[in-house]
């Protein structure tokens, strides 16, 4: 047998020689894991019980519940420890600390009972692990002030040393004189998360009180993205919030941010809103009230802006959402369909050769697809096939869809309570007791059922996947039925097992890998019947994979708690993005259209929203700040505040009210920008659901009624009536009747334009 050293040398070119070297298998994919922490959460509070049943939230909408800022003592002074809000109920545990990764040292020891992360004495800046001071369950830090300088020709900052200015420091022209590009930076913890405040300052004449001569009286609140399921503080530094905003910092804008406003740490939008409100309250108490506050941030950072503008009116005065989605929870409606589709195409229907071409999958799923672009998991899957001698795992076709390229791995992360790729932040005894999922992270919202697991909102009962493809004759009637009979759904949380993603789940063997999490799916009983059964219309031979039904009270709670963007915002918005659809990037352009449609539905117009798009590398964010500054100063929409699109080099393609016209908003013609940057759709849109996307649970109608209404277009489904009843035993979705589980505005306490 070849030595493992030779295997390592040949690995890239000849992955087939992997079998027989288990140490090589255990090494593969290690880069997918985060860095191993120096300290882990060692114990939980004694009264902590994640399985305790609780009802879903049934109170008024989050926008109607104000945070009592008078309960907190702002401003914090250097050495003070920031407050923690308990208005949302008991604090979440376990809670892993990231103060050291943020460059702020160990957290303060807050207990001697061993709860949380150990804190040690330090001697000359080095931990003495023989001297345990206690543990930190809440990861708190005293407030500190530092000066940072911008490095010349770099969008980065470094701590300002004492003595002479560094040779690599950047300088600015201000009021006819040259000043050092130095920021006064305040850091600490507020609401258990690490916060940062920064603004231009003269290090030789330190800012005291509200005296800040270089501040232009404008504040930027920076929000960051990612996908997280809570239970961690997360990292935060000046670089993480300021590296892309150096132009605005140079102009005198102040900057604020918090690890509580980074969605790779959590997607509890009520918690995020309260945290941002507390951080801004500290800023106001320290420096005075800004003339206005602009939000900026991409992906999950855009989600936060839309929801905080809705749930905390007045906290933000304008938004620059980049790579936006309207919210996260309504993305899960279809994103949790992704692996169901991919498993169907890769495994269940692999005998149908047309599904080996990714572009054909896109016709059914709506998402972008390419036979040329690959997903990262492909190479690990190939190695897994070799390690298992290729006996169990089917081969995968070339290429990928947006689902496999961008969303793969997020279904386990958000949906499986037994899986977390960050489990090594917690001692085994802690991890064994915990539930890791988005649903349980927001157990106080969705509720916990008698099985001890949080309720879910995902629902696909009656969804006719591929309906639009059927109507366009992109798939046959038999293929439509075969897909819908076998796509299935996800098992209940209590029935889910650990993922099979080797290193991500602590497994050194590649042989049992599952990239789809298919062992957690509700599949067709026995084995799927072949396509010819459907081609011959043999309904008597068909078996159907069970669909799932979301908990209606949990869905209602998602609306009530402010996790669904309803469109009710009236502040200026410049929604901008690079056009990434052909790259199979998850930040697809139709998400901006969904936002536009929700604002239109809520307010009757979209006069406060602009859609800007370009190709890389041109980024119009600086122009967005200029336009919003004029808009906010004058109180009127400027003439140049119009929809627009640009090339990769910044050449204007088109601008004006009609550039995004298209069938998506009822227009007969397609505008110049939409022609240049065509948008794709989601699997639910291809099943007939509205592009606005906020529909969790459809109203069901009998298949006879669907046929008589012409749901299937020119397809005559009368000869297939029995098959329709077998494949859709509960009926099919009538999307025109809206969300069956959505509470009406009066129930949520909302009135007016909503």
Entry summary:
The chain is of the alpha/beta class and 754 residues long. It is built from 25 helices and 22 strands.
| Strands, count | 22
* Residue runs with pLDDT of under 50 for 5 or more positions: 1-22
Major beta sheet summary: 12 strands, mixed
Helix content: 25-40%
Indicate the mean pLDDT: 92
Largest beta sheet: strand ordering: 4-3-7-8-10-9-11-12-17-18-19-20
**Number of H/I helices:** 25
Our measurement of the CA-to-CA distance between the termini, rounded to an integer number of angstroms, reads 70 Å
Shape: globular
Strand % is: 15-25%
The oligomeric status of these chains comes to single chain
SS class: alpha/beta
Explain the overall architecture.
The protein has 754 residues and is of the alpha/beta class. It is built from 25 helices and 22 strands. A 12-stranded mixed sheet has the order 4-3-7-8-10-9-11-12-17-18-19-20, with helices on both faces. A two-stranded antiparallel sheet has the order 1-2. β5 (171-174) and β6 (177-180) form a beta hairpin.
What is the secondary structure topology, with strand pairs?
Layout: H1 4-10, H2 22-27, E1 117-123, E2 126-136, E3 144-150, E4 157-159, E5 171-174, E6 177-180, E7 182-190, E8 193-200, E9 218-222, H3 238-242, H4 246-251, E10 254-258, H5 269-287, E11 292-298, H6 300-311, E12 318-322, H7 332-335, H8 338-348, H9 358-365, E13 369-370, H10 377-387, E14 400-401, H11 402-407, H12 410-415, H13 428-433, H14 438-441, H15 443-446, H16 467-471, H17 477-486, E15 489-490, E16 521-522, H18 531-535, H19 552-560, E17 573-578, H20 590-603, E18 609-614, H21 621-634, E19 644-646, E20 652-655, H22 672-676, E21 698-701, H23 703-709, H24 721-727, E22 732-739, H25 745-748
Parallel strand pairs: 9-10, 9-11, 11-12, 12-17, 17-18, 18-19
Antiparallel strand pairs: 1-2, 3-4, 3-7, 5-6, 7-8, 8-10, 13-14, 15-16, 19-20, 21-22
Helix pairs in contact: 5-6
């Amino acid at each position: 047998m070849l030595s493992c050293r030779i295997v390592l040398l040949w690995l890239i070119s000849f992955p087939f020689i992997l079998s027989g070297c288990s140490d090589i298998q255990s090494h593969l994919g290690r880069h997918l894991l985060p860095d191993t922490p120096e300290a882990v959460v060692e114990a939980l509070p004694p009264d902590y019980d994640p399985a305790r049943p609780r009802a879903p939230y049934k109170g008024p909408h989050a926008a109607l519940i104000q945070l009592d800022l008078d309960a907190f003592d702002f401003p914090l002074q250097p050495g003070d420890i920031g407050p923690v809000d308990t208005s949302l109920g008991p604090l979440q545990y376990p809670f892993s600390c990231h103060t050291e990764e943020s460059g702020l040292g160990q957290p303060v020891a807050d207990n001697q009972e061993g709860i949380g992360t150990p804190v040690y004495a330090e001697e000359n800046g080095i931990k003495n692990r023989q001297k345990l001071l206690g543990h930190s369950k809440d990861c708190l830090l005293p407030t500190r002030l530092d000066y940072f300088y911008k490095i010349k020709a770099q969008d980065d900052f470094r701590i300002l040393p004492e003595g002479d200015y560094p040779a690599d420091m950047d300088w600015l022209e201000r009021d006819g004189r040259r000043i050092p590009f130095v920021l006064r930076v305040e850091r600490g913890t507020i609401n258990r998360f690490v916060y940062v405040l920064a603004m231009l300052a003269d290090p030789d004449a330190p800012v005291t009180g509200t005296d800040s001569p270089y501040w232009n009286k404008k504040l930027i609140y920076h929000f960051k993205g990612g996908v997280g399921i809570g239970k961690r503080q997360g990292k935060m530094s000046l670089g993480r919030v300021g590296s892309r905003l150096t132009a605005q910092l140079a102009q005198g804008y102040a900057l604020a941010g918090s690890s509580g406003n980074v969605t790779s740490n959590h997607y509890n939008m009520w918690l995020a809103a309260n945290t941002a409100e507390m951080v801004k309250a500290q800023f106001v108490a320290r420096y005075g009230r800004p003339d206005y506050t602009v939000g900026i941030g991409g992906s999950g950072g855009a989600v936060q802006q839309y929801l905080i503008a809705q749930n905390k009116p007045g906290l933000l005065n304008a938004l620059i959402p980049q790579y936006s989605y309207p919210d996260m929870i309504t993305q899960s409606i279809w994103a949790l369909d992704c692996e169901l589709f991919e498993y169907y195409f890769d495994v269940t229907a692999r005998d149908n050769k047309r599904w080996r071409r990714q572009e054909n999958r896109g016709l059914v799923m709506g998402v972008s697809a390419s036979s040329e672009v690959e997903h990262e998991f492909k190479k690990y899957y190939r190695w897994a096939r070799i390690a298992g001698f290729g006996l169990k795992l089917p081969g995968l076709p070339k290429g990928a869809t947006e689902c496999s390229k961008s969303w793969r791995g997020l279904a386990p992360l958000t949906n499986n309570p037994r899986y977390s790729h960050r489990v090594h932040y917690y001692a085994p005894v802690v991890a064994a007791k915990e539930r890791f999922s988005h649903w349980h992270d927001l157990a106080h919202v969705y509720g916990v059922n008698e099985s001890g697991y949080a309720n879910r909102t995902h629902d696909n009962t009656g969804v006719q996947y591929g309906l639009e493809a059927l109507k366009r004759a992109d798939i046959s009637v038999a293929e439509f039925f075969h897909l819908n009979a076998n796509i299935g759904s996800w098992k209940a949380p209590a029935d889910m097992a650990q993922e099979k993603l080797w290193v991500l789940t602590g497994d050194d063997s590649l042989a049992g890998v599952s990239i789809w999490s298919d062992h957690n799916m509700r599949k067709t009983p026995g084995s799927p019947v072949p396509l010819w059964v459907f081609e011959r219309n043999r309904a008597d031979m068909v078996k159907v994979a069970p669909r799932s039904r979301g908990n209606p009270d949990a869905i209602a709670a998602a609306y009530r708690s402010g996790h669904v963007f309803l469109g009710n915002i009236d502040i200026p918005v410049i929604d901008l993005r690079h056009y990434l659809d052909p790259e199979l990037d998850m930040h697809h352009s139709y998400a901006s259209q969904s936002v536009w449609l929700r604002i239109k539905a809520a307010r009757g117009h979209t006069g406060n929203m602009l859609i800007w798009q370009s190709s890389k590398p041109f980024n119009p964010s600086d122009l967005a700040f200029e336009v919003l500054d004029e808009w906010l100063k004058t109180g009127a929409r400027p003439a140049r505040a119009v929809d627009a699109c640009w090339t990769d080099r910044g050449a204007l393609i088109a601008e004006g009210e009609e550039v995004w016209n298209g069938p998506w908003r009822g227009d007969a013609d397609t505008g110049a920008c939409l022609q240049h940057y065509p948008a794709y759709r989601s699997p639910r849109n291809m099943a007939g659901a509205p592009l606005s996307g906020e529909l969790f649970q459809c109203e069901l109608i009998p298949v006879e009624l669907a046929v008589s209404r012409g749901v299937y277009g020119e397809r005559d489904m009368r000869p297939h009536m029995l098959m329709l009843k077998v494949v859709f035993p509960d009926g099919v979705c009538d999307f025109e009747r809206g969300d069956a589980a959505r509470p009406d505005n009066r129930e949520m306490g909302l009135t007016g334009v909503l």
